[in-house]
């Protein structure tokens, strides 16, 4: 099919590259010319594993056409995905302006080119009723005939797993205003035969996306609250507690004597808290939406409250171990909000750095994906090091924030080589404690 994508960010570019690799002819448009130029040169504007290889193939096969010309995109295509950002506003509601302006642009060009039967498919995350209350009235104002289609197809991919999540979706939710849009969207995804296709109205589709992100955020905050309680009694290992919970047959099912570990297992872990461009933004947005509708939300309020507290709890532990943080050399390992990405949006490491600065510690950091020269001058509140070793040299305390594989190599020998009195907080329970002296290794969710 001939399809367009507006917005060449994580979601848009992944959508464009993956669908073009499956044989669709995709024209991708972004406001930012440099992004389009980079993509034309087969380079990704961000890091995402496996995506560059596919980009190379799809540009070479001319199944993916990057353009800065919206007319070209509209002329080439029968429908397009809207994949622009929906960032938080000051009051935590979402800023719908990128969605509205990009759809307005599409509609104006459809009108100019007298193109009918076009289908607009929104992939951006938007709060319930955005389609009905804001987008549809605007579209109706510009397109006076009713031959167009409009639907919401939320995206559930995770950064770092974007290609595999896109290619192997468990569900495809299509919330349409009419049958035409539903039929069109179903045809795009007809080769994804392992996925459950859920067809519904736009409001339900909007809510499904928020329920999804709120649920996984809740599991993380649940795990962190259990950790807070466990830490008050020496010897309780929260990781063991939650591993045992997962064994419950209501969570881990058994099929023909084979235990099937649920995917949610990876969200039942204590740690430094969730970050990224979506969980914090989306939970806050649905809370703001509920509050505007006078709905009480004690559970989701607590999810955010527990999460917001995580960096300060880790810094309190650091202070307890070092007695005072003033002038202490503290190393942060991992700045991205999770491994296998270069995304630092709402990463808990940055809140920890802010707290360390307040306490006048000298902060050094290392992240495998941010160690190049172009990243160096971006940060002023800490020194970004280009190797793990240089970041821990003469350090008084190392705190692990992100589960990068490279950090798995850490052991007592490495700490002894570079630090005078080795001390480490494993903020994710990621390292093998047996590789460290007992008084050196401290992990979240466990008090010795
Ligand atoms: N990042 C993720 O893993 C996921 C994000 N989402 C949602 O998808 C949406 C997009 O997120 P990301 O891809 O992360 O955002 P992003 O910020 O990486 O990309 C957005 C892109 O849209 C472009 N853009 C903005 N206004 C435009 C306009 N008027 N015309 C053309 N291009 C325009 C920007 O230049 C940028 O390249 C958000 O609503 C987000 O909540 C949903 C699932 C996963
Ligand atoms: O709407 C979105 O943008 C996406 O948000 C999340 O995806 P993502 O933010 O890429 O990453 P996750 O792997 O889900 O992790 C989110 C955060 O939770 C943290 N986390 C995860 C698991 C855990 O046990 N503890 C924990 O703190 C991670 O470190 C990370 O900061 C969702 O998982 C996707 O389904 C969704 O499409």
TrEMBL record:
Reactions catalysed: UDP-alpha-D-glucose + 2 NAD(+) + H2O = UDP-alpha-D-glucuronate + 2 NADH + 3 H(+)
Binding site for NAD(+): 30, 35, 86, 125, 159, 281, 345
Keywords per UniProt: NAD, Oxidoreductase
Pathway stated in the Swiss-Prot or TrEMBL entry: Nucleotide-sugar biosynthesis; UDP-alpha-D-glucuronate biosynthesis; UDP-alpha-D-glucuronate from UDP-alpha-D-glucose: step 1/1
Pfam families in the cross-refs: UDPG_MGDP_dh, UDPG_MGDP_dh_C, UDPG_MGDP_dh_N
EC number: 1.1.1.22
SUPFAM superfamilies: 6-phosphogluconate dehydrogenase C-terminal domain-like, NAD(P)-binding Rossmann-fold domains, UDP-glucose/GDP-mannose dehydrogenase C-terminal domain
InterPro entries: 6-PGluconate_DH-like_C_sf, NAD(P)-bd_dom_sf, UDP-Glc/GDP-Man, UDP-Glc/GDP-Man_DH_C, UDP-Glc/GDP-Man_DH_C_sf, UDP-Glc/GDP-Man_DH_dimer, UDP-Glc/GDP-Man_DH_N, UDPglc_DH_bac
Binding site for substrate: 156-159, 209, 267-271, 275, 338
Domain UDP-glucose/GDP-mannose dehydrogenase C-terminal, residue spans: 331-433
One biological process term in Gene Ontology: polysaccharide biosynthetic process
Protein family: Belongs to the UDP-glucose/GDP-mannose dehydrogenase family.
Protein name as it appears in the record: UDP-glucose 6-dehydrogenase
